[in-house]
Amino acid sequence: MKKIKLNQKMLEEWAKQGYTHQVREYTESIESNPAAVLEFCNIAGSWFVDYDWWADPRFKPAVDQIDESISALHKHLDDLYLKPIITIIRTQPLATVELSWISSSFGLVLWDRFFVECEDPVILLSINFTSADVRYKLAPTNTPRAISPLHRFHPERFRSTRAYAEKFSRLYRQNAEFNTGAITEVSLNKALAHLMKGLNERIVSYPSRHKKDDDNPTIVFNREIIFGIAYGRFAQAGRQIMDFPPGLCEMLSHTDIGEIPVGEIKLPYVCQYLHFGPQQHLELEPGWFVDGAYIESQGGPGELNIVVTAKPSNQELFDLWYLNAEPLYSQSFKGEHGEVYLGTALETVLRERLNEQFEKEARAEGGFLEGEAKKLISEQGQESIFASVVDIGARTARIEIDETNRRHPVFIEALKLIINGLLYITAYPEDIETTWPDKAPLALRDKALHGNSREMDKAKSKLTELGYSPVHLCGKSFTLHHSDAPHLPSDGHKSLHWRRGHWRNQPYGAGRTQHRLRWIMPMLVGTKNNPNDEPELGHIYLVS
């Protein structure tokens, strides 16, 4: 583009003639130079005052849209004198417009973002928005975001979208008690400060005009705490991912767990992530399907914490995690829970959970927080301070009660995969193949898998530092012998049904005094009127 030097004569002619191709030639020559654009806008504001640039049909629709958004902002903040910030971003053939304001609490807050049809973003910016501060940017170079092969696992999705994920990781690796996950209040507060900062940064980067009235930041914050702690423990344990193939998942889902003693559930690591892939029959929330769970030890036998994760069918749902809380179901088993069967423990924890939430709701509705706040203000001699205390505890408690009632049945079904998956890898450790992502440095991968003890430890530590996680592929023998799990046909054979699998505590060894778990696999049974009704699987055992 030929560089055109601006002079007074040109400005005088343009002021008389209005927007011509000569004007466009000049603005086109500078539109890639933000400093030159702003300089021109300052000059144009004084020279073109007598010409109604805003009325030109090439600019009026965009100007009207900007004016409408500014009016909505003034109304939203109840401040007619607020000076908004208008940023025009050159994104040919459309221009991107951002409207912001400066908050004393959060700094720059984005109000609105939209596209406008405008052949000349420079002139659009130079139009006399006297009540606004104008800025100009070039569109960033958009390079397609490379999706990691590990993105299907929740820990990787969490790490890549939360700026504070590695802060939790570092704090737990350095400060948390390894066996129980206990962490000092000081360290936890540091982690929560990182979370709050990162969450606020993401919230203010989203146009506040387009946020829904029912967005609940408290729910989002509470969910992120649960995810952050689970991820921290996951990182502390060496980022262990257990991956189960679809066929094995199908069989595990048809294996009973109600009579499994909670205290006999063993974990290979103090924390691990079990991945099953999105389960279409386990919809935690509309469009969100259970795909795995974090399971961590909290010390003694049967003291477990489980955080069930879900993957959306629409990626956009996940990308807005900071506005709409990512669904989960978190449940701890501890104390007396470890002394009973899992079925009994599930009834107990549901009752305890709902009772706690009902108590929280009652306290909020009784004005407890408001009373405590007024008492604190009075004790500090600050009764004159104008303050409004809004207790959203009751609303939050009701949301949590509703979520518990809605999600608990899904959680029970998901537990069949989780508990049976843990029992499987405990009973058949030889049926697990450990690998590292293909993108990990080859030399480190080889040493982590095939080096001597010292080399393996060093390589694993280095890979973990680089953000790579080992993936334990479970069910190697199962997949080899069963390319596909049986399933109920959809052709009306109602006689066919699952004979559910279970676990048997099998005696072995000298005098059969030792015991180990043996999986009695589920199978399809029914009438013999059709060859397809013959039992499938169930008679094959994996022997360790």
Structure description:
- This protein has 544 residues and is an alpha+beta fold.
- It folds into 3 domains: 8-138, no CATH class; 152-350 and 417-426, no CATH class; 486-533, no CATH class.
- Helix content is 42%, strand content 18%.
- The chain contains 17 helices and 16 strands.
- The strands form 4 sheets. Strands 5, 6, 7, 8, 9, 10, 11 and 12 form an 8-stranded mixed sheet that branches.
- The chain is elongated, with a radius of gyration of 31 Å.
- The model is unreliable at 533-544 (pLDDT under 50).
Shape: elongated
Specify Rg, calculated over alpha carbons.
31 Å
Number of separate domains: 3
Number of helical regions: 17
Structural class: alpha+beta
Q: Largest sheet, described in full?
A: 8 strands, mixed
Task: Name the quaternary structure.
Answer: single chain
Strand content: 15-25%
pLDDT < 50 runs, ≥5 residues: 533-544
Write down the overall mean pLDDT.
83
Note the gap between the termini.
Answer: 74 Å
List the helices and strands and how they pair.
Elements: H1 8-17, H2 21-30, H3 34-47, H4 60-77, E1 85-91, E2 94-103, E3 107-117, H5 121-126, E4 133-138, H6 154-161, H7 165-175, H8 185-204, H9 217-236, E5 241-243, H10 246-252, E6 271-275, E7 283-285, E8 288-297, E9 304-312, H11 315-319, E10 329-333, H12 342-365, H13 368-379, H14 393-427, E11 432-435, H15 442-450, H16 453-465, E12 471-474, H17 476-481, E13 497-499, E14 502-508, E15 514-520, E16 523-525
Helix pairs in contact: 7-8, 7-9, 8-9, 12-14, 15-16
